[in-house]
Amino acid sequence: MSFSIKGRTAIVTGAANGLGLAVARHFVRAGANVVLADMDEAALEREMTEMTADADHVRMFTGDLRQKLSIANLVSTTVDAFDTVDILVNAARQVAGTAPLDPEDTSVEDMLMQNLSTPLRLSQAIARRFIKQAEAGSEGSIGSIVNLSSIAGRRANPELLGFSVANAALDQMTRSMAVALAPHRIRMNGVQVGSVLSASLMGWLRDHDSARQSILDATPLGRIANAAEICDTVQYLASDAAGFVTGQIVTVDGGRTLLDPAAVAVH
Questions:
Q1: Residues 174, 187: contact at Cβ < 8 Å?
Q2: Which InterPro entries match (predicted)?
Q3: How many CB atoms lie within 10 A of CB 15?
Q4: Across residues 149-172, what is the average pLDDT?
């Protein structure tokens, strides 16, 4: 079975930077039509100027996907440009700290809106589009949705309470929605990532030099992932090669979640 997504149309959220941008670029190189969606218009425009050679296969969309109208406009933009949509990658992730004992702290609600409710609503809209454009009697999957989450959802970190809770909820949403969408031949899976060598992490490590060794010590494979390794996993789940895979959370963390943090600290 082929891993190819050539000729498919994909929407990638959070595509102005980080993993969202990495996935969008990866999909373009793989021959897909890609709509880059984000709130950062300036960053998207800069990226579009870098993709002039692929201009026929790339579009940008700027909007706040927490708003239902923006979701509808994103779907319309994609269909107007490429006629269909075949893949959705929910890669937009917001990280914010939490003061767990402060009743005025709204970070949990904010994280749940950005990292759970928004991908859920967008997935519902895209799923309806998948169903509408499916031909009667066609075989196999009619669309694939991939949600990016974090191993923070499996760890107890009070300072990242909102982010951790939202990621745990997103993984459960992926499983539950996969069952709901399966009768319509729509697949939904997740990629749960550990530390990735993004621009933001590299900048943070420059200011926290000892943190790099802590990450390496906590990772059995002894290194930090590069974005391409996450992108390859996303492409697999989006492709026909994963045609019988749904409701799965694929953890790409170098084995980090296999270790007891206490044991790592002792050794």
A1: no
A2: NAD(P)-bd_dom_sf, SDR_fam
A3: 29
A4: 91
Give dist(CA 235, CA 224) in Å, integer: 20
For residues 189-207, average pLDDT: 81
Block residue for tokens 């190819």: 4
As given in the structure block, the two tokens for residue 206 are: 């420059």
Give the confidence band of 210 by pLDDT, cuts at 50, 70, 90: confident
pLDDT at 266 > cutoff 70 = no
Burial category of 66 from C-beta neighbours within 10 Å (exposed 0-12, middle 13-18, buried 19 and up) = middle
Contact 130, 141 (CB under 8 A): no
For the chain, percent helix, then strand, then coil, each to nearest 5? 55, 15, 30
Q: Which of 203, 175, 211 is nearest to 190 (CA)?
A: 175
Q: What is the mean pLDDT of residues 64-70?
A: 96
Enter the tokens of residue 175.
């499983």
Convert the pLDDT of each residue in 233-255 to its tens digit: 999 999 999 999 999 999 999 99
Other C-beta atoms lying within 10 Å of the C-beta of residue 81? 16
